[in-house]
Amino acid sequence: MRVLVFDVFGRYALFRRSYTTTSSTSYDFPPRTAVCGLMGAVLGLTNKTSDSSEHLRHFDSAHIALRLLKPVRKTCLGVNYVETKTGKENRTQILLEVIKDPAYRIYVSEFELFEQLQKHLRNSTCVYTPYLGQAQMIATLRFVGVHELKEVPAPQKVHSVIKQLEGLKVKPEENLVIVRETMVLNMDNERRPTEYATYWVEKNAKALEVLNYPGKIYRVEGLGECVCWMD
Questions:
Q1: Which residues contact 172 (CB under 8 A, 6 or more apart)?
Q2: Contact partners, residue 45, CB within 8 Å, separation at least 6
Q3: pLDDT at 23 over 90
């Protein structure tokens, strides 16, 4: 199995927790749906309306893994919003929790648009501007390569976020900061969540030693990294 690997980074990111309202707080890393949106921007995928998420169907056959490349550091910013729909000059200030200097590595298995995505990333081109959760938080993408995957048994040092499955065991070590994040895994075409998943991640971007895992662990040949799928 081949996997396309690329890095994404920027100055700020905000992947809003779905249960927050006026003040937005951010997940530590993008949900699978946000990663699909990022790749959809590169490929130029469109939806019929702004409330639709039909572009996600192009990624239904893709497996995706994600690794933190930097420790997660958050700060809060006050952002002024202006009412533009009614023509009235209503203004309000919203507090946003954002990730500072985010950097992630994305791994995507072969799917229907694999070759097109590879071509764009290899040539540093995109159809629409990719961003990290908010339109003003522009993302920079860097092609890493196309690599073969080899399934390997536990125990292994896993570099990606790990989907929580029954029977998962991680070796506890000194100075590890393990965070659990529950987020939307998939949505229907009307942006309604259809599936949720919980992930384990080390907040300082360290690999976790997995002693037992009911799912599959893959080694990315040529990079020496082990990953688990988010889906």
A1: none
A2: 55, 58
A3: no
